[in-house]
Structure formats: structure tokens, C-alpha cells
Amino acid sequence: MRCICPPLARCSFILFILVLTRLVTGGSVNRTIDDVRGDSATGALVQYLPQVPAGSKSLWFNQTSCAGCADVPDAGQTFDGTWSAALYQANVGSLSVTMKFTGTHIYVFFVVPNFLANSGLASTVSCQFFIDSVAVGTFEHQSDGSGAFEYNSLVYQNVTLPDEDHVLLIETSGSDAAIIIFDYAIYT
Ligand SMILES: *[C@@H]1O[C@H](CO)[C@@H](O)[C@H](O)[C@H]1NC(C)=O
Ligand SMILES: *[C@@H]1O[C@H](CO)[C@@H](O)[C@H](O)[C@H]1NC(C)=O
Ligand SMILES: *[C@@H]1O[C@H](CO)[C@@H](O)[C@H](O)[C@H]1NC(C)=O
């Protein structure tokens, strides 16, 4: 049978289904922000600082570019097959990962390394979290010396944010060396 309903009626029907879907899910949808591919809905990319002039050595490493890295995470076990890491040292001053999102919940996932005790590699993961420029938390981890990477490690979550635009800043600074390996974030 040929459909003879006017376009407006069809639009209303689609709108009705959308409203119903939102009601059923409580209006909450999880979206991901991948370290390389960015926001699954908007495509907005994550920003990494410090940025280096073209041609000089980057402080940030990833699954495709990690010259001189002795021990790297298995990209196959990370979200979207990607990870982004940086080694912080006091002379760097500050390094950071920044992303924007709109919503009420944010969950941040790292790959947490436990480099072998005698490897000479960074034994500490350390960073501070800021939402809209307000310090809201920290994550600290000391290597257990086992050599194991902990994938999908939830290092920060906040489920009490007002439903509006937010900026999440993950920063490492201070006098102690540390490594961070960012994989992805989820926001609701
Ligand atoms: C969103 O993701 C978080 C973290 O994985 C999970 O705890 C939560 O149940 C998810 N919420 C929805 C609506 O899928
Ligand atoms: C990996 O890192 C290099 C050097 O920082 C950068 O040029 C490249 O765009 C990165 N690639 C991905 C897929 O993140
Ligand atoms: C979540 O963010 C709000 C707004 O910045 C802040 O007041 C609150 O302390 C945060 N909660 C957690 C668990 O970090």
C-alpha cells in the first residue's frame, strides 16, 4: 500500500519515536571522547600541552609514534586501539590534556603502568583534575613493579555536574617525575 500521509505527519511520528526513546532511556546517553579520534558525537578533538614547534621532539607519545620507548601498552587492549602518553619532568613545568563536553557525568580512563622495578622507567602516575577551572580531584599510583599495564582504569568520575558545557583539564605539574597514559573519557 502506498503511503499517502503528508510529510508533516511523518515528521510528527518520527518526533514521537524520538521523545519516546528519550523517555525510556531517561534522556541519558553515554558518549565517548577518544584520545585520538575525539568526541564520538561532535568530533571535537582532545588538546595536549605543551605543543612543540614542528620538527622538534614531542613530549606526547602514542601507539604509532613512541621512538625510544622501552615498554608500551598493548594498543589492542585500549579503547579504539589508541593511547596517548607523556613523561613529566620538573623542567617541563606543566603538561595537560583538555577536553570539552556537555552533560552531567564524566568518567576518565587511563592505562595505568606498573613498570618493572629495575627498569628505570617512571614508577609514578600523578595528575590533578579540574572542571571549569575548579580543582576537583587527583589520581596517584605507584608501580607495583610487576610490569603489568592496567587497562580501562577509571581514574576520575563526577556524576553531579550541572547539565551544561564543561571543560575538563587533566594536569601534571610540580617537582616529581610522573607518567600519564590517557585512553578515553565517557560523558553522559
Ligand atoms: C555510562 O558509562 C558509565 C561508565 O562506564 C557507566 O557506569 C554508566 O552506567 C553508563 N550509563 C549509561 C546511561 O549507559
Ligand atoms: C602520534 O604522535 C605523533 C608525535 O607526537 C603525532 O605527530 C601524531 O599525529 C600522533 N598520531 C596519532 C594517531 O595520534
Ligand atoms: C564534581 O564537580 C563539581 C563542580 O565542579 C564539584 O563541586 C564536585 O566537588 C565534583 N565532585 C567530584 C566527586 O569530583
From TrEMBL:
Residues 1-26 form the signal peptide. Keywords: Signal. This is Uncharacterized protein. It comes from Mycena metata.
